[in-house]
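Researcher: Next entry in the queue.
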Amino acid sequence: MSTILKTLTIAGSDSSGGAGLQADLKTFEEYGTYGFSALTTIVTMDPDNGWHHNVYPIDAKLVAEQLKTVFAGGPVDAMKTGMLGSVPIIEVVQKCILENQQKNVVIDPVMVCKGEDEVLNPDSADAIRDLLLPLAAVATPNLFEAGVLSGLGRLTTVGEMKEAAKIIHERGAKNVVIKGGKSLDGDMAVDLLYDGTEFTILETPKIEPAHNHGAGCTFAAAVAGGLANGLSVKEAVAKAKKFVTAAIRSGYQFNEYVGPVFHAGFRLNGE
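Model: Structure for this entry, 271 residues:
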């Protein structure tokens, strides 16, 4: 039997299954890895109130106990973070990564829930920037998060994405992927990879209807899955782009508010 590859997500729960910890574990499975998890927050969405999100962070001590359980078997082959919820949780995650000398760390700096437009916790955003970016093999902010982390505010062009990527790299992330996705004007879904030297543009035609709930979480988890499988960062990001595009194309309309990606789309469509 071949060696089992191990991956870890430290993230929030999305009961709708498209995003968060659920999305990460589904993605890890599609990449042929054994997924561990540490729950940081519980997110609920209220169908009686316009799908408004309520976020309930887990006590940081309990997060630390979960991570102690995971790392009882030693470091994993790759890991990612998602919604962390509070500064004490971020401090726990930083300590865990350092103490276990964990490599292949993907930091997905989740600051808002889809459909929301305000940072959940500004102090947490600062802590992600200061404590976790320096530990990131890859950071995967979306346009909003990249604007916050870089201090540049709203990003609307590839040129602005490049400037933000440079700043985020200077703040410690070895590689930066800014997920422009469908948010930029034009017919293409555009993502940008910066390794400190070279920019790589990844683009695919926009998909309509875009069942893209969970696309960001899924992309970051796919990058971690690729790194666990021994891909280079550039290879892992390129495959993640293909994986999440297939997941969006295979997604469905869950209700009037949201359409999640389908994580098995890449495999089932033979891509």
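Model: The longest strand covers residues 34-46.
Researcher: Noted, moving on.
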